[in-house]
Amino acid sequence: MSGWVMVAGLGPGDDALVTPQVMEALAEATDVVGYIPYVARVKPRQGLTLHPSDNRVELDRAGLALKMAAEGKRVVIVSSGDPGVFAMASALFEAVEANPAASDTDIRILPGITAMLAAAARAGAPLGHDFCAINLSDNLKPFTEVERRLRHAAQGGFAMAFYNPRSASRPYQFSRVLEILREECEPERLILFARAVSTPEERIHTVSLAEAQPEMADMRTVVIVGNELTRRVGKWVYTPRSVPA
Fold it and tell me: What is the Cα–Cα distance from 245 to 242, expressed in whole angstroms?
């Protein structure tokens, strides 16, 4: 039987948000590859081998999956959320580009519910108009590039979703993000801090830009910044679908 690689999104945390397509792929797989906490979400069964690995070894992980597929195995690479949003789909294609012999591998990308969409749904509709997503980590790009993209997004009037806002190794960077937002946006701009959405640890807090503090975010938090029209309606936060001329 010919092998294949599927890159699957496990959603934000609740098993009910894993798509049937992803569940079917996991049921057919001989091997599952991924970051340790994501592989831990896959139920062990006979005939399935789990290959958990540490963070920041994405290319090694992708190379292993391609090697096993070439041996005829059915491999699922798991990511949280959606695999195409700051996750393993891009890493897999980097590995394919570095190994042209792997370009004929049967590869499929299975979408999932990414954290910003789960958080937005909990809050109402803060991403109801034009928006962008920015990874605030500088592991794979200089922080000066983060600052440049952030400033242009704010000037362009986009709502924004921030991934990886603040870690123990770089607690100062989110402070700089808030400084830039305060330079470009009005103090009443709404900011949503959504931590561990769809899990028992879920916590969602909405404040104004003037009230926002760096300690409100960590690596399990997605931060959503509304645009200048984003507002509250009762307990909900939403961004209107239209912009006045």
Answer: 9
Find the helix or strand (DSSP H, E) in which 143 lies.
helix 143-155
Domain boundary residue among 113, 136, 167? 113
Of 84, 113, 142, the last residue of a domain is 113
At 127, the pLDDT band (50, 70, 90 cuts) reads very high
Angle at 104 (CA atoms; ends 91, 111), nearest 5 degrees: 45
pLDDT for 245 equals: 82
Distance in angstroms (rounded) separating the CA atoms of residues 151 and 154: 5
Residue at 90 is within a domain: yes
Residue 55's pLDDT band (boundaries 50, 70, 90)? confident
H or E, element range at 69: helix 58-70
Range of the domain at 20: 4-113
Q: What is the pLDDT of residues 99-119, one digit of tens each?
A: 989 999 999 999 999 999 999
